[in-house]
């Protein structure tokens, strides 16, 4: 598949998820799981530590510093659970 075809497919899946409320449901579950695991608090503490040494203070710079750390530290069980939910949704939508 080309990049434009992948982008189109992604947009279609996202649209369907938003329309039927699945997007919000999964987002809420993800947020809850990350909070329960301590990931959210750890990321917040890291942001505070980084901002304390930053001069001048820049939200953009803080976000750039946190992005790769945030992506690589999501607990594997949380990733797996959310991935399974998304795969189930896609299967249900496109197997019809």
UniProtKB/TrEMBL annotation:
Give the family, as the similarity comment puts it: Belongs to the ENY2 family.
Q: Which PANTHER family match?
A: ENHANCER OF YELLOW 2 TRANSCRIPTION FACTOR
Keyword list, A-Z: Activator, Chromatin regulator, Cytoplasm, mRNA transport, Nucleus, Protein transport, Transcription, Transcription regulation, Translocation, Transport
Record GO terms (molecular function): transcription coactivator activity
From what organism does this protein derive?
Rhizopogon vinicolor AM-OR11-026
Q: What's the protein name?
A: Transcription and mRNA export factor SUS1
Assembly state and interactors? Answer: Component of the nuclear pore complex (NPC)-associated TREX-2 complex (transcription and export complex 2), composed of at least SUS1, SAC3, THP1, SEM1, and CDC31. TREX-2 contains 2 SUS1 chains. The TREX-2 complex interacts with the nucleoporin NUP1. Component of the 1.8 MDa SAGA transcription coactivator-HAT complex. SAGA is built of 5 distinct domains with specialized functions. Within the SAGA complex, SUS1, SGF11, SGF73 and UBP8 form an additional subcomplex of SAGA called the DUB module (deubiquitination module). Interacts directly with THP1, SAC3, SGF11, and with the RNA polymerase II.
Query: Predominant location of this chain?
Result: nucleus
Q: Which Gene3D superfamilies match?
A: 1.10.246.140
Pfam short name (any one): EnY2
Biological role:
Involved in mRNA export coupled transcription activation by association with both the TREX-2 and the SAGA complexes. At the promoters, SAGA is required for recruitment of the basal transcription machinery. It influences RNA polymerase II transcriptional activity through different activities such as TBP interaction and promoter selectivity, interaction with transcription activators, and chromatin modification through histone acetylation and deubiquitination.
**Gene Ontology cellular component annotations, sorted alphabetically:** DUBm complex; nuclear pore; nucleoplasm; P-body; SAGA complex; transcription export complex 2
| Keyword Transcription in annotation | yes
Gene Ontology BP term (one): mRNA export from nucleus
Entry's localization field = Nucleus, Nucleoplasm; Cytoplasm, P-body
């Amino acid at each position: 598949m080309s990049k434009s075809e992948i982008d189109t497919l992604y947009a279609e899946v996202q649209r369907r998820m938003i329309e039927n409320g699945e997007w919000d449901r999964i987002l809420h579950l993800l947020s809850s799981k990350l909070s329960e695991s301590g990931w959210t608090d750890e990321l917040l503490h890291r942001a505070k530590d980084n901002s304390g040494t930053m001069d001048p203070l820049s939200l953009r710079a803080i976000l750039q510093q946190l992005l790769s750390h945030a992506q690589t530290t999501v607990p594997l069980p949380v990733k797996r659970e959310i991935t399974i939910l998304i795969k189930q949704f896609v299967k249900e939508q496109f197997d019809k």
